[in-house]
Amino acid sequence: MSVWLSLLLISSVAPEVQKDFSAAREHALAQNYDQAAALYQSILERGVFDADVHYNYGHVLESANKPIEAILQYELALILDPTDDDAAHNLQQLRQRVTTNPLPATSSQAISLADVIRPFVGSSSQVVTIGWLSAVILLLGCTLQCLPRKARPKLLPVGLISVAILGLGWVALAAVPYTETRAVITQETVLRKGPDERFASTGKVYPGELVRILDVTAGFRHVQRKDGTAGYVKVSMLEALSYPQ
């Protein structure tokens, strides 16, 4: 993005959405940040997920002195467009102002293998289950390949049926949405060893900090910081970066 008030280049959106986007830009230029923010939020609530909308919304929130909300929008913009250097720069500058433990500029764009897998599975147990199903399918294939040629036709239907059943199980597990892969901390709080305030502290997290969600429990999220420190945080202390599947 060459300028922060970029045009929304989505030909498929409804005319009223384009009208609201233009109106939000005009409000932002006039420093009517509350009106601009309300329009951007309305666009997102209508299911328009676009990097420019999140970027502009983030800039409006930053201008309105709402840094945590702005960080969230910049992070979402980078999820949709990881090459957006302006969003990455603004995010780094804003995070340095709001946290006593700033993260590197590249941290928001770092996607681990777990981040790639977790949008398609619901929990760590599902990761293990899918791994076992995949291993069984591979084992069946190798077994059929190693059998004498004369024995293969007799066992082939059984093998195909087994593979089909296992494949359907894999698809069923993978279809369970789990979009909470990363989150932004909204309030300074402690990391705890377990999902309850009675557990001991393992460290702190700070407003604006990006964390990876490892697992979900009632009222808490098991998160991991950039330095590898992990612990449980109350769900009210963070905002997940997620989209509908």
Helices and strands, with pairings:
Layout: H1 15-29, H2 33-45, H3 51-63, H4 67-80, H5 85-98, H6 113-117, H7 124-146, H8 152-174, E1 182-185, E2 189-192, E3 201-205, E4 210-217, E5 220-224, E6 230-234, E7 238-241
Antiparallel strand pairs: 1-4, 1-7, 2-3, 4-5, 5-6
Question: Would you kindly provide a written description of the structure presented here, covering whatever features stand out?
Answer:
The chain is built from eight helices and seven strands. By secondary structure, it is of the alpha+beta class. The chain has three domains: 92 residues, Serine Threonine Protein Phosphatase 5, Tetratricopeptide repeat (Alpha Horseshoe), CATH 1.25.40.10; 52 residues; 60 residues, Roll (SH3 type barrels). A hairpin with a 5-residue loop joins β5 and β6. α2 runs antiparallel to α3, α3 packs antiparallel against α4 and α7 packs antiparallel against α8. The protein starts with 14 loop residues before the first helix and ends with a strand.
Characteristic key phrases:
two-stranded antiparallel sheet; extended; alpha+beta; 5-stranded antiparallel β-sheet; SH3 type barrels; 3 domains; 245 residues; Serine Threonine Protein Phosphatase 5, Tetratricopeptide repeat
Strand order of the largest sheet: 6-5-4-1-7
Determine the CATH topology of the largest domain: Serine Threonine Protein Phosphatase 5, Tetratricopeptide repeat
Mean pLDDT: 74
The topology string of helices and strands comes to: HHHHHHHHEEEEEEE
Short synopsis of the structure:
This protein is 49% helix and 14% strand. The chain has helices at residues 15-29, 33-45, 51-63, 67-80, 85-98, 113-117, 124-146, 152-174; strands at 182-185, 189-192, 201-205, 210-217, 220-224, 230-234, 238-241. A hairpin with a 2-residue loop joins strand 4 and strand 5 (220-224).
